[in-house]
Automatic annotation (TrEMBL):
This is IS30 family transposase. One of its GO terms (cellular component) is cytosol. Residues 1-101 form the Integrase catalytic domain. InterPro entries: Integrase_cat-core (IPR001584), RNaseH-like_sf (IPR012337), RNaseH_sf (IPR036397), Transposase-Integrase (IPR051917), Transposase_IS30-like (IPR053392). It comes from the Bacteria. GO terms for molecular function: nucleic acid binding; transposase activity. NCBIfam families: transpos_IS30. GO terms for biological process: DNA integration; transposition.
Amino acid sequence: MLRPYNIICKTVTLDNGGEFSCHASTAQSLSCQIYFAKPYHSWQRGLNEDTNGLLRRFFPKGMKIGDVSKNKIDEAQFLINIRPRKALNYFSPIEFLSGKCIGYCGNLGDASRKREKGYSMFY
């Protein structure tokens, strides 16, 4: 599942949760270095913390996740994954991973000048 991403993945920074006990196999699959953030040093995992903030816009703290429909979760996931990211040169994660520029509805601000319909970032 992770092998297609080993070309673009150089490092992964994890927290110290038990869910990362298989980090060695992840590192091998991705052919990358794994680092662990120090406890209570959230700035060492900046992208993760930023993404958590985006999730909180859809699902505020205290909200019971069991009350959220799969459709709402899928919608939030899609909207987060089409959001342009500065770290990706204002491409969205979907565009970055697929290598294709997708169309958007709405105002993209300055990022719209960096995109053209049909433009592929890998040519």
